[in-house]
Amino acid sequence: MIDYKEAGLNAADLKEMYRTMLLARKLDERMWLLNRAGKLPFVISCQGQEATQVGAGYALNKEMDVISPYYRDLALVTHFGMTPQETMLSAFAKRGDISSGGKQMPSHFSKKEANILTQGSCVATQLLHAVGASYKFKMDNEERVAVTTLGEGSSNQGDFHEGLNFVGVHNLPFICIIENNKYAISVPVDLQYGAEKLSDRAIGYGMHGDHIDGNDPIAVYKAVKEARQRAISGEGGTLIEAMSTRLTAHSSDDDDSYREKKNREDCLVKFREYLESYDIAEESWFESMEQELKSEINDATKHAEQAPYPDPAETLTNVYEEVNNG
Ligand SMILES: Cc1ncc(C[n+]2csc(CCOP(=O)(O)OP(=O)(O)O)c2C)c(N)n1
Ligand SMILES: [Mg+2]
Question: Residues with catalytic annotation?
Fold first, then answer.
């Protein structure tokens, strides 16, 4: 892992980053338990990708920048302002779900006041939404950046090429982060693309490309911070490939016996070891953090479990602008 001082971070920053990573991990683990207990219909995990997501989020300006995330980005959206209660309301498909009133699939994050754009289920379409936002920022001369994330499998969709080509042509303030966890459901990378590095595609779009260790939140922070600086200085977009790890099956409906379970690097364990090696935090801090987050997640779960489901009469609300009942 790279040196935090060289990246411009201090001990308090690292502790805050660790806290958000741990919160996302614990929320995710709780949702799996609730799924296996028959209480949640579906879970798709951020586990193993928290370092990429929090490192990236920490380098952005939450008040100014816009993110267009994908379904694994629980840690990124948590950093941007999605609360555990909002996450649980969505997971339980309750009426108070901020993204859709309990009608959208879980992990289709959106929160207008936190600059999190809404998304559809077709992978890579979120990239186009971010490109549109960055075009607007450029037209209006705003010092803002639009950021999107997606899996390496999704980077083979036509939307990816069309979107990045547009960014290159118009030199837009845009960052695309590929969270390369080496699988697209059961399909390994050697059956997904022939390139050595996906970040090499950047040259074809006339933009900067970076290939980084996505298990190192500091390396991700540094790469995204630099990308943001280039974007607001009029130097255009950046394509970042963060090499990451998917610690769970693709989703709660996937049997991942197609892959080896040993030797998976866990970014949270690695970051904890890093904090301990620099004497930034000790055992008692980690323990109190676990307790604090556990009680926050207990409260969020209880609240969401007891909350009402949407009224069937609201089925078409926000689906059509106006419903003709005649
Ligand atoms: C256009 C489209 N094709 C197929 C799917 C079904 N699907 C959902 S997730 C997924 C795998 C995506 O893999 P990757 O982009 O590597 O992301 P990861 O899940 O590994 O983070 C697929 C094929 C979809 N949602 N949209
Ligand atoms: Mg993948």
Answer: 246, 250, 258
